[in-house]
Write a structure and sequence with these properties.
InterPro entries: UCP028498 (IPR016888). The protein is 35% helix and 29% strand. With 125 residues, it is an alpha+beta fold. It has a seven-stranded antiparallel β-sheet with strand order 2-1-5-6-7-4-3. The longest helix is centred in the C-terminal third of the chain and has 15 residues. The relative contact order is 0.22. It has a single domain, classed as Pnp Oxidase, Chain A, CATH 2.30.110.
C-alpha cells in the first residue's frame, strides 16, 4: 500500500484518538498507547506529548514499524520522521483545530518545541 485510501483517512481523522503499538526488535508489538492524530492533506501525523522522551515514540523510532488502530481502521504502518518546519506549522494548526476543545494544559505541549521535534508521518504498509 502506498498511501491511505479516502475512507480510512476520513475515519481516522474523525476519531478522537489513535492507538499506536510500535514493533519490538523480536517482531512483537508493544502494548497500544492512545495518542492524538491529525491529518494534513492525504497524510496522517502524530507527535509525542512527552517529546523525544516518550516511550512509544522511542520505540517507534527504533523499529520504524508498528500497528495503529483508530476509527475502526487497524493497519500496519511505518513511522517516518517529518521535521520540516513549514509542515510543523500546519500540524500545529491541525492540533489546535481538532483538539482545541481540550484544556490548553494538553494542547499547548503538543505544539511546543519538544513535541514538534517528534512529528511523525504514519505511512501504511
Amino acid at each position: 500500500m502506498t498511501g491511505w485510501n479516502s475512507n480510512d483517512l476520513a475515519a481516522i481523522e474523525a476519531a478522537e484518538e489513535l492507538e499506536v503499538a510500535p514493533q519490538r526488535d523480536d517482531g512483537t508489538l508493544r502494548r497500544p498507547t492512545p495518542i492524538w492524530v491529525v491529518r494534513d492533506g492525504d497524510d496522517l501525523y502524530v507527535r509525542s506529548y512527552r517529546g523525544p522522551d516518550g516511550a512509544w515514540f522511542r520505540a517507534a523510532r527504533a523499529s520504524g514499524r508498528g500497528r495503529i488502530s483508530s476509527g475502526g481502521v487497524e493497519t500496519d504502518v511505518s513511522f517516518v520522521a517529518a521535521p520540516d518546519p513549514e509542515l510543523n506549522d500546519r500540524i500545529d494548526a491541525a492540533y489546535r483545530i481538532k483538539y482545541g476543545h481540550h484544556s490548553s494544559t494538553y494542547v499547548d505541549p503538543m505544539v511546543a518545541d519538544p513535541a514538534r521535534r517528534t512529528t511523525t508521518k504514519l505511512q501504511p504498509r
